[in-house]
Specification:
This protein is of the alpha/beta class. The chain has two domains: 115 residues, Rossmann fold (3-Layer(aba) Sandwich), CATH 3.40.50; 133 residues, Hypothetical Protein Tm841, Chain: A,domain 3 (2-Layer Sandwich), CATH 3.30.1180.10. Helices cover 39% and strands 24% of the residues. It contains eleven helices and 13 strands. Strands 10-9-8-13-11-12 form a six-stranded mixed beta sheet, with helices on both faces. Strands 2-1-6-7 form a four-stranded parallel beta sheet, sandwiched between helices. The protein has a three-stranded antiparallel beta sheet with strand order 4-3-5, covered by helices on one side. The longest helix has 17 residues. 45% of the residues are buried. This is EDD domain protein, DegV family. It holds the Pfam family DegV. Keywords: Lipid-binding.
């Protein structure tokens, strides 16, 4: 069987990167002031960040059914027997259930995998799928491996500003005002497709340290005994300054020496809710052997 691998830009995998490694990537839509944009095609991360800072009305959206089936048809017409599609977690979006419903018309040739991941941890799963497909595994076998490790990942994110999350209703305006005055930085955790509050500390330096402590705790408990080459550390963020992004990556690499560390901007679906200049760190199980930047 010749099996194709497809994901969307919520994985952090760019269109160019996907083309380079033989992974099909669907641009995710973003709606700004009622106007539709497609990540990378008609809006850049920089333009999205600018709109976020201007406090414009921004929401993420599912890909249209037509864009999904059109891409599936194109892939299958290129000589593939089947394809696996790995969207963002069903716990964070309805796009996975929509894709599963649409795949029913493809007689088993399209297999949708709910990996319960997003952003940098979803990236690991997509590369795992590509490695497995290159090794001769079929769609059913790839699905079994990815769903087995679906909950073996944890993401921690600290917010620079509470402006965007206040608009989502997850925190009141009064609470945000108090937190801002006291320089309190909330830390969120994403695991298994659920976004929850994890901690609240004073100052960004303390927030960074708290996230590092959380990952070290995970490594010593949840991931105890797993070899370093089977674990992936992710650095992520919505940083406007490339130098700041590099400094964050270097800090994560220094903190977790000996682990492979990958950086990507946080997915647009997360950025829409948490705003700019956030920082994140993640840990997860991976079987990826492909060397990526």
């Amino acid at each position: 069987m010749k099996t194709a691998v497809m994901t969307d830009t919520n994985s952090g995998i760019s269109l160019e990167e996907g083309h380079r490694y033989g992974i099909y990537v669907l641009p995710m839509p973003v709606i700004i002031d009622g106007n539709d944009y497609l990540e990378e095609l008609t809006i850049t991360h920089g333009e999205l960040y600018k709109a976020l800072n201007e406090n414009r009305d921004i929401v993420s959206s599912q890909p249209s059914p037509g864009s999904l089936t059109e891409m599936w048809d194109k892939i299958l017409s290129e000589g593939y027997d089947e394809l696996v599609y790995i969207p963002m977690s069903s716990g964070l979006s309805g796009s996975c259930s929509t894709a599963k419903a649409l795949s029913a018309d493809y007689d088993g040739r399209v297999v949708v995998i709910d990996n319960h991941r997003i952003s940098i941890t979803l990236l690991d799963s997509v590369y795992d799928a590509k490695y497995l497909a290159n090794s001769g595994k079929n769609a059913a076998e790839i699905k079994e491996v990815l769903e087995k490790n679906a909950y073996s990942n944890d993401i921690y994110i600290t917010l620079h500003s509470l402006k965007r999350i206040t608009k989502t209703g997850r925190i009141t305006a009064a609470g945000a005002a108090i937190a801002t005055v006291l320089n309190l930085k909330p830390i969120l955790k994403i695991q298994g497709g659920k976004l929850d509050a994890y901690a609240r500390v004073r100052g960004m330096a303390s927030a960074e340290q708290k996230m590092f402590e959380a990952v070290h705790s995970d490594l010593e408990s949840k991931y105890a005994g797993i070899p370093k080459n089977k674990l992936s550390i992710g650095a992520a963020g919505t940083m406007e300054d490339k130098r700041a992004a590099k400094q964050w990556v270097d800090k994560v690499k220094a903190e977790f020496a000996g682990y492979k560390v990958t950086y990507r901007p946080l997915a647009c679906s997360i950025a829409c809710h948490i705003g700019t200049n956030t920082k994140g760190v993640a840990v997860g199980i991976t079987s990826r052997t492909l060397k990526i930047d």
